[in-house]
Amino acid sequence: MNTNHDFMDHWLTIDSIQNKIKKELENVLQAEYSLSLKEFYVLYYLSKAPDKKLRLQQLQEMIGLSQSALSRLVGNMEANSCGALEKHVCTDDRRGSYTRLTDLGEKKLQRSLVSFREILKSYLSTVNVEGLMKQLIEEL
């Protein structure tokens, strides 16, 4: 039986790097843009969608939140205090509702993408992620 578990060390290193980056992203997004990482992802996915709108169920699958958690998150982002999203009722199925990215939400996303890129660049420039992934794959 092979007891060499180097693959776990490489996996844990990658996991640790990702966790550090997520924590830094969360801190900067919250401090500079009043956004959580999940809210940032909502803005990003909506910016890529046709007409910058998605059904809540689609967003739920993309973001990985429960239906109630996503409804709360989107509701807060649709509130007048934030204004990054606006709610739309589906015309062909009144039970379905969409949320759409507003101009304010788009501007918030574009500004926060600059910080997002800077953080990724600063962390990933110090680590050979490609090498770690290659070693992990070889050891599996």
UniProtKB/TrEMBL annotation:
GO terms for biological process: response to stress. GO terms for molecular function: DNA binding; DNA-binding transcription factor activity. Transmembrane segments: none annotated. Residues 28-132 form the HTH marR-type domain. InterPro entries: HTH_MarR-typ, MarR/SlyA-like, WH-like_DNA-bd_sf, WH_DNA-bd_sf. PANTHER family: TRANSCRIPTIONAL REGULATOR, MARR FAMILY, TRANSCRIPTIONAL REGULATORY PROTEIN-RELATED. This is MarR family transcriptional regulator.
